[in-house]
Amino acid sequence: MLLHDDEIPVDEGTVRSLLREQRPEWADLPVGPAGSGTDNTMFRLGDELLVRLPRTPDKATAVRKEQTWLPRLAPHLPCRVPEPVHAGRPGPAFPTVWSVYRWIDGDEVGPGSVTDWARFGVDLAAFVRSLRAVDLMGARREGELSGYRGGPLREYAWITESFDDCRRLPDPDLDIDVLHRIWSDSLALPGSTAPVGWLHGDLKPTNLLARGGRLHAAIDFGGLSVGLPDAEHSPVWDLPAEARQSYWDALDLDEPTWLRARGWAVAVGVSGVAYYRDSYPAFVAECRARLRAILGDAAERGR
């Protein structure tokens, strides 16, 4: 399934060609699909490894970023994160950089894998707190570490076009006018005064693994950046209400931070529906579920 105009097609043969050229000791291991996201395609390699290839050439910077920073961040975090074991080079079979990681056992976070959502919210808050507490180690908000989700929400002004696109889609479950108001109200809030710190950038359930009912790992650090914390909190609207509440309480977030995070959640959800509406139904379903949760939460809170 191709999602982008400049997508690089890959299959198991691509992986084997790269391995024969660069890591021949792995070339005869079993290779099989291990899922895909909006930015990467993954293949299981044997029992202990995962191959991750960017979907488009511009995602090569995210690959290098993970290879550089994940080994430095991992010792400071309370759950597992991907461990790079090979920095793949471009080759005849694939035109850009790629990675091999240690396989992490676990199940995607959801009703079948999490046993206590309030406890999960506390665990996720601990991960966010720990990541933001890691020394910047010379990193600055520039280049590959200047992801837009670490900046002010007003830098996402182009989202207006996504609202217009969503209004043209038949979806009785989404009140786009209310979502637009929530987003507009968040733009009027005073900006964050929090210090710049490390951000994962996309802590949605598909980037989290559970084991034994608890948070076990955070994966896909392609959105890693340093910046303001508001957008880091936005994926909690993908979680049940009890997880959101315990997360908020554990981090002792103030109301303006929570409302800016909600604005980010609307922006990411609406843009996801608009961009992937014809190409990635599963992701669009995730975005719609997030937006429905925001509408329900807003109705309950009266704002």
UniProtKB/TrEMBL annotation:
Asked if Kinase is a keyword of the record, the answer is yes
Q: Which UniProt keywords apply?
A: Kinase, Transferase
Pinpoint the Aminoglycoside phosphotransferase domain residues.
Answer: 33-264
Query: Entry's Pfam families?
Result: APH (PF01636)
Gene Ontology MF, one = kinase activity
Stored SUPFAM superfamilies: Protein kinase-like (PK-like)
Domain of life per record: Bacteria
UniProt keyword Metal-binding present: no
Which PANTHER family does UniProt cross-reference here? AMINOGLYCOSIDE PHOSPHOTRANSFERASE-RELATED-RELATED, BIFUNCTIONAL AAC_APH
State the name under which the record lists this protein: Predicted kinase, aminoglycoside phosphotransferase (APT) family
Q: Which species does this protein come from?
A: Micromonospora auratinigra
